[in-house]
Protein 1
Amino acid sequence: MLDTFFNIEIMKAAWPILLAGLGNTLLLSATVVPLGLLGGLILALLARLRSPWVRWPLMAWVDFFRAFPPLVLLIFLYAGLPFIGLELGGFGCVAIAFFLNTGAYYGEILRAGIDSVPSGQSEAARSTGLSATQTMAWVILPQAVRNVLPDLMSNTLEVVKLTALGSVVAMPELLFQARQAQSLTYNPTPIVVAALIYFALLWPLVRLLSRLENRALRTG
Amino acid sequence: MAAPIIEARAIHKHFGALHVLKGVDLQVAERELVFVIGPSGSGKSTLLRCLNRLETPASGSVVVDGIDLLARATDINRARQRIGMVFQSFNLYPHMTALGNVTLALRKVAGKTAAEAEALGLAALDRVGLRDRAGHTPGQLSGGQAQRVAIARAIALEPRVMLFDEPTSALDPELVGSVLAVMRELRQDGMTMVVVSHEMGFARAAADRVVFMDDGQIVEQGAPAAIFEAPQEARTRAFIGQIQRH
């Protein structure tokens, strides 16, 4: 049992491979989270525009990418884009797929956050001469983000976990590397170690999130 | 009367099918304190909000301190620096300290450096008697203090006129006095003020003119004594009678 799942020799051998995978997972997360937030912010700001020419396409966009399974989207980009001469590689495809998918989610969260700020805030800011953009940047967004911080973090947690999808397009992130090590050694230990690494990476975030959620409940 | 500093002419405003302002004219002279009273839904707050273009009238004209607020070429953000506004629900920024609330527009709009803004902000807080609360957040202030910080936020920009939208309606009765005291001081310093409020005692003591609105129109206006003691119009009489019973 120990030899199968917690084989020390194999752990030692697989460690450098897994570490490289962890590095890529972190790099990937550090790319897709800001990209997703940026995309989400753009969507949330566009949602403020009342024009039907913005509204309907925006709604269709958000609905589409929330309904489209990110794995399918990723494989489609990876396998489909080369047919129109676009070879983006694993990293590029993952980045774009996540930008589209997770941006839609971040967008909905940020939109809810912006809507949660009372209109009096923006009226007060505008009455002192702040422009609409300044009002958004200095008055509305800081409060909006604070109001939906648990949701933003929860989504970020999902995004980091979802980077494991990169393994299906040969992106050498943690899960992919673990599976390589597993098939080289004919032993599941690397997968177990990868799982532990994911846990060590995400658990502090999960704890922080519960604390925020509890605080939100108390002050709610 | 010198040229008015606020000159609103023939203002019409609709909210959907509702005709909220039906051709309102209002002139306010420099250093004048005008009280606007009327039943809820009479359009008095909407009129006030037209005076800094928080609401855009469908037609008519609004000129404040020589600036045509409705002209396409007008930089409304610059114009609004000259028009301070105080709201019923304070609308302080909850994520900033009292000083942060007062200095935001000084830094971002008036182009002051952080040091200049802080000095001006502290001076403004001093004028409302809250310099020692500079580091408090709105959540740590009483309603009366919050409203005085909101007044400081507006006067820090050295506006030419101040608009007050029911500034004491959200306050516990014992906190009203501190806000009225600050308003009285502004008045003594010669600030031009338009106040939507039912603080009759303050109106009698401080207002130059009382304007009674009903159903989107100005029904009657005049000196406080005339409006409160000897209203000419039946609607004015009914309204004054009602609020004096309370």
Protein 2
Amino acid sequence: MAEFKFLQGNEACVEGAVAAGARFFAGYPITPSSEVAQAASVKLPPLGGYYIQMEDEIASMAAIIGASLSGLKSFTATSGPGFSLMQENLGMAIMGEVPCVIINVSRGGPSTGLATKQAQGDVMQSRWGTHGDHAMIVLTPSSVQECFDQTVRAFNLSEKYRCPVIVLTDKTIGHLRERIEVRGPEEIEVIDRKKPDCAPSQYKSCAPDDDGVAPLPSYGDRHLLRINSSMHGEEGFLNDSPANATALVRRLWDKIEKNVSYIGKIEGYRLEGAETVIIAFGIAARAARRAVTLARAGGIRVGLVKLLTLWPFPYAQIREALDPNCRSLLVAELNMGQLVLEVERLFKDKKILRVNKWSGEDILPGEIMAALKEAGC
Amino acid sequence: MVLAGVILGEAAVLAGKHAAQTAAYGIASRGGFAKSEVVISDTEIEYPAVEQPDVVVALSRSAVDRYLGKLAPGSLLIYDNAIDGNFSGDGVTGLPLSATVREYRKEKGVSLPLNILSLGVLAAVTGAVDMDCLAAAVSRRFKKDSGTNLRALELGFALGLNVSQRKEVNRPGPAAKNLPG
Amino acid sequence: MGLTYRDYLREELFPQMWCAGCSHGISLTAVARAMAALKLDPAETVVVTGIGCWGKADDYFKTHSFHGTHGRALSFATGIKVANPRLKVLVLMGDGDGVTIGGNHFIHTARRNIDVTAVITNNFNYGMTGGQYSSSSPEGTISTTSLYGTAEPGFDICELARAAGATYVARTTPYHVTQMDKLLAEAIQHKGFSVVEIISSCPTFFARYNYKVTAVEMMRLFKERAVDRERYDALTAAEKAGCFLTGRLHREEKEDFHTKYARLQQQAKARAEREVV
């Protein structure tokens, strides 16, 4: 039975996590994500789950990886400097193929930066923050409802592909309160990791099925699990041969990048006949939507593509959604221009416009309107 | 202050409406300028922050300064008349908000919360949420300590009825009855 | 189950990857013997390692294993153990992993009294990266990054563990194999955070630079310099500096994290049920 609640974005992430089956949270408090930790500390223990406050974000990331391998769906939350500290073990989760979810409520940087203010400066850090070649799934909610829905989706994707998934929100969305529909368990699709169905003696921790994903037992199961942060072969032992390194990095990449049609998600608004299309995510997409409504009322042919998946970049979906009349793309983001780099790279046939702001304040609908007018739309 | 906005939003949701609330405050946990903005709508809210407020309740001098002379035509600025200064203009009204709290304390020895009193004013002035829903939201929030808060809400509502220019934005639709109690 | 220590080891992977004369092989089989003595179920046992020479040890165990990032082994182990308290979790770390880069995690795991066993082989330097000094290197240590000697004192790992709240603390050496077996078994059985420091030889770097002796002579040194509490207390400060205090140094019965947390979960559940009513 669905229930309407008036919740904060940060709280909605926890509701979503619990609905997806999460029972373990390890974290370190940091503004503006602390409400995620607070809500997790209230919600999880009565469910037989765990909230543990670690000594830093490095340990937080490590603890959720460990807990996930013991069989509990696990998550953490952070922002800015804390997200930087998590990069090390984000790589561990990629290499060890460990399902887990990281909620990054972004704030102004660099460094301590604007601790209590708004930014979307982690577009590239969420994609490339940890070292080495890797793919990354990053989901971007733009409302409190989407904080719930996208957190559920993050757990499902992490379980399906045995990988970490980042829910990238921002200070405004994290602290925003809105009406949301909290659906009952029967209305929510929950995906669980696949377990090995072979005999324990036949099991190899890192031998993928045809879909590129290896079944994952838990510590304590009869199938012995070997997780290795070093380049490893199918049995989980170190293997640094050129052929193995080439194949493993490729497989870890492909299991995500070859499934963009499933992982990628966008939402179009007023794209019919749109000559200019705004591309935005998170709170900037809300301002853009308002701007589109206002502009359309004034006869300007403009539309919006809202990204629900930021990475892997849903290029084909965007391309398909655009009206044949679309000549220019306007990327509105709360940074000096990060997402726009990907858009420029892939849409060489379009004129690219930008609206950027990194003052700690949100982009206002009027500012997007002004940019449209200035560009002659 | 921030809590009042949250309760207003909760009341709107109880009334079957869409609501969005944002807040701004400094890094200190107490003191300093704070504001709470609420958008209430019968339909989905596109942009959740207030772009142009219909009604502002100002409880400090800095709040008055921020909005005085900057409101759209037809909007209201209601300020606590205990704030030092003479403010005038279209839609600008002073109400004895803290004076009411003070008087009540003198009479009954109980401190009424000014933020909840302000909510009553908003309910009367805008009609954006009905009082039953607001009272339900207050009771839910304060549980056994609701008495004083409900009294503050009523007194605020009575004060609000004195404002001559009522801003009837977003008149309440029928309250949804199937919402969780 | 009738298992011997060989049932816990992947002997097919031998010879071990460590340098000739390195004492890690002795420590490895001692851990396996402790597992066998306690009849640990390999499917309920997890060996967690970090990075470094001793961090390769997990490869040789026929149990569940986790080879993680440098210094974070105890944090992974915390998640593993908290999420499934039934597991026996052994965390194998060197002095670099355990108390240098991982120093913060070490003291907090001790403070929380997480029921895992840390087996720290302390060879006073970073062997794998080429013999640089670590936070356990004594002041004046000669290493590849301190040709003029170090200007900083080293940690006493056991003192650090005890001060931070570890409830079982012991030290031994590769010469004292019988003692090592006994202490490891005690530590694994102990409920709460247990630490066994194994003073180790790095014949390739630390021993060569500082003692200028061979691996065999290092063993003689361990034999001569390891002293029990009674003998140690009778020594002068200068004599103590050249010795290793060995044996079980600390043991206390104290509720571990898991026991306390299970109670907290019960209380939280009861309270949540009350509030719904």
